[in-house]
Amino acid sequence: MCDLSDLNAVNKLVDELRQHTKKIDLFIYNAGILIPSYSWEATTDQLSAVMNVNFFAPIRVINGL
């Protein structure tokens, strides 16, 4: 299990995956979150979590693998 809003946890996940497998044939990233409100009503922490889960985490996983 990995908190995808925490990029340190994502980095740890990538490191663990690379240690336990030599080849990944298929990786399905099926995660995403949204804030059901206007962007100007969201807090910085909420927006950061959305960007981390929806954008930065998948890029980090792809680049790491």
Walk me through this protein's architecture:
The chain is built from two helices and no strands. 54% of the residues lie in helices and 0% in strands. The protein has helices at 7-20, 44-64. The protein is elongated, with a radius of gyration of 14 Å. The chain starts with 6 loop residues before the first helix and ends with a helix.
The total strand number stands at 0
Strand content: under 5%
Query: Which whole number gives the mean pLDDT?
Result: 90
Q: Considering DSSP H and I runs of 4 or more, what fraction of the residues is helical? A: 40-55%
Residue stretches low in confidence (pLDDT < 50, at least 5 long) are: none
Radius of gyration, rounded? 14 Å
Structural class: mainly alpha
Number of helices: 2
The biggest sheet amounts to: none
Spell the H/E element sequence: HH
In short:
By secondary structure, this protein is an all-alpha fold.
Question: Which features characterize this protein?
Answer:
2 helices; mainly alpha; 54% helix; elongated; 65 residues; 0% strand
Question: SSE layout and pairings?
Answer:
Blueprint: H1 7-20, H2 44-64
